Predict the structure.
Amino acid sequence: MTSCFTQASSRLKRLVFEHVRHLSEICQPRKIAIKPNWVLHETDPAFPIRALVTDARLIEATVEACLNFFPKAESILVGDCPLQYADWPLMCRQAGLDPVIARLSARSGGRVVFRDLRREVFRQDGDSFLAAANGDHGDPTGYREVEFGIRSHLEPISDQSDLFAVNDYSSAVTSSNHRPGSHRYLICQGILDADLFINLPKWKSHQKSGITCALKNLVGINGDKAYLPHFRRGAPKWGGDEYRDEGRWLYFAQTRLRERFQKRSRLAYKVLKPGWEWIKRVRGIETRLDNPDASPKRFYIAGGAWHGNDTLWRMIYDLNWIIQCADAEGKIQPTPQRTYFCIVDGLVSGEGNGPLQPLPKETDWVVFGSDPFKIDATLGWFMGFDLGRLPIIARREHFGGVGWGEFDVDDLSILLDGNAVKLVESNINFEFAPPPGWREHVER
């Protein structure tokens, strides 16, 4: 059962230790993988690090609990694949992770390893360009392509695979790995080797999926985000779900010019950027949301960042099926291949235009569970969202894995500070500000 705890910061370590101790009664893993949310370093104080990534206190408590209750574990990998231009060392400093890493590495005698798992890392060179970066990164055990074939949740829309894309990554790589009858992901071997996977997501709103929590956090088990279709290019009238039909020609022009010219040529960038800034001023287009109560009517909503995105949930379901049923060789088996457990960081949550521009929400919760669909449904409800309008939750009957998501929302019960309550009968509503592309659609 999903367990939610309020005023959690004052008793965080005790709660984590208690739940990991219960977990140790059903498994004694040889290898453990812990997956925080390390999406990006803080780039703007309006969207602080405490609302952006998993809290260092929760990570430290979880690793300490694993060292205590799984003494025979050979290794504990704490890792994620941030965005390609994320500065991981800077993020560690901003989030207060550096002393945590030092303490746990020393205490464990090298059994605990913190790792930036990206296969390739880039740095921002100017406002609109990326350059290859050096530094210590990558999974030292390598990566493995996991092939779904026709079983992928993307297969029903694979006749449009030439439209699959993810912003700032190679569309050629995306479409070459997802086509009718073949769907491949590049999974970190260190994740596949684990027989216990502990998910440590951050509770935030998300511009493409409405909510990011247990399910969406698995994007970071994949070593190259170009393997992950986030949307189909174009507007619905053109067969895509990248942006809405309204204003589609403006979006089409901006996105195509940006990809084709602006990001490849500094000269083109200098020529085209002033024109785009002029259009934004004339049309009142907004690209950031600093106030959760604001209701921008002309917010720039592209890249699949709206409620009509019918691609993203399919990719997310595939990744959750992998973490549940893919063996160490990357083969999808009919039964679960590792123990899964989730601890949600809701100490400071993120609302508004998440996941990269989250406005801090002082929720002070921590949540435990073993079914990511139940966790996300629970927290989506407490955000004040209509679960039937969140595809990542509403499409759960299509999930190809084993056992997860098999519930009726009206009958779903949870533990709230140890007391059993029916979710839909709870009067708690944090009234999270939805992302702009979900406004006046997802609110309950």
Observations:
- The mean pLDDT is 93.
- The chain has twelve helices and 19 strands.
- The longest strand covers residues 339-351.
